[in-house]
Amino acid sequence: MKANANEIKFFKNRSIIKFEGADFLGEIGIDGRVFKALTLARISVGVISQQAVENGLSILVHEDDSEKAVTCLIEEFAPERKSGKVSQIYSINNVSVIGFVADDLNKILSELARNNVFPLLLNQNSSEKRINIVVTSSQDEKTKNIIESEIFKKPKTVHLAIIGHGNVGKTLIEQVLHSSEEIKRRKNIHLKVVAVANSRKIAFNKKGFDNTWSDEVFAAEKSSNVDELINFSKENQLENLIVVDNTASVDFVKNYQALAENGFDLVSSNKIFNTLPIEEYRKLRYTLNKNNKRYLYETNVGAGLPLIDTIKLLHLSGENITRIKGVFSGTLSYVFNNFSLRDDKFSTIVNEALEKGFTEPDPREDLSGNDVARKLLILARELDLINEFSDINIQNLVPEALLSVSKQEFLSRLEELDEEYDKIKKNQEPNHVLRYVGDLHGDLQKEKGELDVKLISVPATSALGQLKGSDSIFEIYTESYGENPIVIMGAGAGAKVTARGVFGDILRLSETK
Ligand SMILES: NC(=O)C1=CN([C@@H]2O[C@H](COP(=O)(O)OP(=O)(O)OC[C@H]3O[C@@H](n4cnc5c(N)ncnc54)[C@H](OP(=O)(O)O)[C@@H]3O)[C@@H](O)[C@H]2O)C=CC1
Ligand SMILES: N[C@@H](CC=O)C(=O)O
Questions:
Q1: CB 346 within 8 A of CB 278
Q2: How far is CA 243 from the centre of its chain?
Q3: Quick check: 92 and 49 in contact, CB under 8 A?
Q4: What's the N-to-C CA distance of the chain in angstroms?
Q5: Would strands 130-136 and 86-101 be described as parallel, antiparallel, or unpaired?
Q6: Of 92, 171, 264, 409, which shows the fewest CB atoms inside 10 Å?
Q7: Which ligand is located closest to the Cα atom of residue 167?
Q8: Rounded to an integer, what distance in angstroms lies between the CA atom of residue 372 and that of residue 456?
Q9: Which phi-psi region, left, alpha or beta, contains residue 116 (left: φ > 0; alpha: ψ -120 to 50)?
Q10: Which DSSP helix (H) or strand (E) runs through 17?
Q11: Nearest bound ligand to CA 328?
Q12: Residue 370 Cβ contacting ligand 2 at under 6 Å
């Protein structure tokens, strides 16, 4: 069915007159009296809908006529109002009508629902496939855009809010700006970065930021606050919203719930949410489900490597995963691969990992083992295990005295770790190297698995011993694969690979939007 631009009609400033009562549906003459009363009052009537469930009629009029329409119907039906047969006559103002021709109304309605648009009135002429829907004026532009992209196959605009523009966030914005034209051409998806935030402020650009985005963030005056973001999306009636969390913030994740309730899908490189107590973890999934929203976080484990998806698919398809182990941290891979081979101080190599953008914003998250522990817990929960962070046995590499000092002080005192790690290195068996590993094992059919995170010494010739650079390695043991695990190996950290992984999640969501 071909549609053309003339077939979309858009009328603002309308009101719905609601006429409700018990048991008058089907009674001969009621509709006629309604129209006659309105005609005599010289009120032109638009879309009409009869609701069996509510026992009522909804009639569309121009908002200038709404008061008059209510008054004249109240007069006409005075006896029925007195007897209780007609219970309510009132108006809903500030609505708009969009009329169009479409083959697949269900698809349009589901797109609208995913964007939190639920028409107040819908009227369909099935022979002509002409549909009129009435929505509140605060959602009319968004509704029109969604309908236009659906029926005219116009590029679907996806609005991105990027929270955090450090190593990963900044690289992601650059990658999106660089590829957006190509994606529009190949996928008919128009990715627009409309909000960028750091911990202090948030910048908005409804038309979409270009290469000057960082100047606009620098000049922004609004303080970084999720309510600002939600209001901005509502005021500008933005459809297809995705918020991307590229922070490591424990505070920002508290907003996920509200964002999902307000029409945002979520993408996150931040691992904090998925390692909160299981109650919180489940509550968000419930909210996402209820609001038809999704949350993707492929980069939470293995940066750009396709790990979470693989585990999810194996598990969903009924494959029994019996163990997952390996080097989960790109940072600690880099640190111990280099420290084992080179003659440099431990602190020198940690500083290198920091400069290369492999570490967490606070490198103690890596060195304490917490980051690896989070990754292990995230994988465990993908297998429906209900482990908590406190269940994990973690070998912390940071001296107790340096755990609670500021990040700056910690970095300035990093050399205090050198002697200890030199000793550990020297005390190994010949031809052995150090590796920091994670291991999810035990009976994974039970409610909880066993999670261990520790520093080990392995033969330099072993698979772990041969690891290079900042590579991570994950060995996934399953019942069908037996003794030979599925092995996923590659860059486990770095802004470029991580941003690329986040970008992948954005595209996955955009394509199903
Ligand atoms: N680096 C890597 O290889 C990988 C990183 N990740 C994850 O990516 C995330 C980002 O890492 P990275 O880019 O290196 O971190 P950075 O420290 O470079 O950047 C963090 C950004 O988040 C902002 N931010 C912090 N708190 C908030 C807040 N409450 N609200 C809004 N913005 C905030 C910071 O703003 P400000 O400057 O104002 O503090 C900054 O812009 C982390 O969660 C990390 O675990 C995941 C996989 C791999
Ligand atoms: N610091 C982390 C970054 C990715 O999650 C790591 O090194 O693995």
A1: no
A2: 5
A3: no
A4: 22
A5: antiparallel
A6: 409
A7: 1
A8: 14
A9: left
A10: strand 9-21
A11: 2
A12: no
436, 329 contact by CB (below 8 A): yes
Convert the pLDDT of each residue in 415-452 to its tens digit: 999 999 999 999 999 999 999 999 999 999 999 999 99
Atom of ligand 2 nearest to the CA of 331: 7
| SS3 (DSSP) at 134 | strand
Ligand with the closest atom to the CA of 336: 2
Contact yes or no for 287/259 (Cβ under 8 A): no
Residue 5's pLDDT band (cuts 50, 70, 90):
very low
Q: Which pTM value belongs to this model? A: 0.92
Residues having CB within 6 Å of any atom of ligand 1 = 163-169, 197-200, 224, 246-249, 251-252, 269-271, 299, 303, 330, 357-358, 360-361, 493-495, 498
- SS3 for 15? strand
Dist CA 422 CA 344 (whole Å) = 10
* Among candidate residues 241, 230, 15, the one with its CA nearest the CA of residue 120: 15
Task: Check: CB of residue 143 under 8 Å from CB of residue 117.
Answer: yes
For residue 199, the CA-to-ligand 1 centroid distance in Å is 10
Contacts 24+ apart (CB under 8 A), 460-468: 460/340, 460/431, 460/432, 460/433, 461/431, 463/487, 464/326, 464/327, 464/435, 464/437, 465/432, 465/433, 465/435, 467/327, 467/333, 467/337, 467/435, 468/337
Does the beta carbon of 297 lie inside 6 Å of ligand 2? no
The ipTM estimated for the assembled molecules is 0.99
Residue ranges of E strands in 79-120: 86-101
Q: Which of 196, 86, 494, 164 minimizes the C-alpha distance to 329?
A: 494
> Does residue 331 have its Cβ closer than 6 Å to ligand 2?
yes
201 touches 224 (CB < 8 A): yes
Of 269, 352, 358, the residue with max ligand 2 atoms within 8 A of its CB, to mutate for a pocket test, comes to 358
Q: Ligand 2 atom 3: the closest Cα is on which residue?
A: 493
How far apart (Å, rounded) are the C-alpha atoms in residues 139 and 127? Answer: 28
Atom 42 in ligand 1: which residue has the minimum CA distance?
248
Q: Please identify every residue annotated as catalytic.
A: 375
pLDDT tens for each residue of 37-52: 999 999 998 877 766 5
Does the C-beta of 366 come closer than 6 Å to ligand 2? yes
Question: Could you give the CA distance from residue 214 to residue 278 in angstroms, rounded to a whole number?
Answer: 37
User: Nearest C-alpha to atom 23 of ligand 1 is from which residue?
Assistant: 164
Chain segment 378-428, per-residue pLDDT in tens: 999 999 999 999 999 999 999 999 999 999 999 999 999 999 999 999 999
